[in-house]
Amino acid sequence: MSDFRIPGITVYRLALYARVLENFLSEGKELVSSEELARACGVNSAQLRKDLSYFGQFGVRGVGYSVPALLKHIRRILGTDREWPMVLAGVGHLGLALLNYDLLPQRGFKFVAAFDVDEKKIGRVINDVYVYSIEQLPWVLKEHPVEIGVIATPAKAAQEVADLFIAQGIKGILNFAPVRLKHPKNVVVEHSDITLLFDKLAFYLRRLD
C-alpha cells in the first residue's frame, strides 16, 4: 500500500506510539503487550494492531512486542530515524519558541537557518541558528539544501514565503500562519493553527457547565 493512502490519523497515532515506547525504553522495559501499549496511548488494542498492520507484522503472539525493535520500526516508518535539516521564516514570538525548542533536534529536526524582514532581528544568532534577511533565502538554500520549511510569519506573508520555499525545491512545509496555503501536489503542507485548538477547547469547556 502506498504511504500516501495511509490515513493521517494513523500516522498521528504512530508518532504517539513512538513517544510511549520511548518512555517505556527509558524505564528499562523490554517487552510490552498490545493491550498495555494501547492503554498507555489511549486507544484500544484492536486499533493499535490495525495501525501497525499497514506496515507489516510486528510482535509475537502470546509474548508481545520488543520495545526497542518496535520503536526502531516505527521510527523508520515515520522517517524519524534520520536528521531533517529545516529553515524557519518568521522570528517572532512563535518563531523564537520553535528555535529554542530543544526537543526538535533531539528528534532529528534541526534548524540550519532562520529568516525575517525585521532589521533588528537579522544578524542575530538564536540557539546556534543565524537569522538572515528573507531576501537571502535563495542563496542560503543553495548553500544549505533542506527538505522542510517552517512558516511562522503573519498570515499576509505566508503564501509569498511558501512560494519562495517551493521555488527553491523544498518539498515539506509546516505552516503556523492562520491561512491555508496554495501549493503543487508534489509538495506536502501541514497546517497548524494554534488558535483552532483554543476554539476546540472552549467548545468542550462550555459543555461542562
TrEMBL record:
InterPro entries: CoA-bd, NAD(P)-bd_dom_sf, Rex_actinobacterial-type, Rex_DNA-bd_C_dom, Tscrpt_rep_Rex, WH-like_DNA-bd_sf, WH_DNA-bd_sf
Chief location of this protein within or outside the cell: cytoplasm
Transmembrane segments: none
Species in which this protein is naturally found: Thermodesulfatator atlanticus
Stored SUPFAM superfamilies: NAD(P)-binding Rossmann-fold domains, Winged helix' DNA-binding domain
Subunit structure: Homodimer.
Gene Ontology MF term list: DNA binding; DNA-binding transcription factor activity
Cell location: Cytoplasm
Protein name, per record: Redox-sensing transcriptional repressor Rex
Top-level taxon of origin: Bacteria
Pfam families: CoA_binding, Put_DNA-bind_N
Protein function: Modulates transcription in response to changes in cellular NADH/NAD(+) redox state.
Keywords: Cytoplasm, DNA-binding, NAD, Repressor, Transcription, Transcription regulation
Binding site for NAD(+): G90, V91, G92, H93, L94, G95
Keyword Cytoplasm: yes
One GO BP annotation of this record: negative regulation of DNA-templated transcription
UniProt record similarity statement: Belongs to the transcriptional regulatory Rex family.
PANTHER family in UniProt: REDOX-SENSING TRANSCRIPTIONAL REPRESSOR REX (PTHR35786), REDOX-SENSING TRANSCRIPTIONAL REPRESSOR REX 1 (PTHR35786:SF1)
An annotated GO cellular component: cytoplasm
Domain named CoA-binding: residues: 79-180
DNA-binding region: 16-55
SMART domains (UniProt xref): CoA_binding
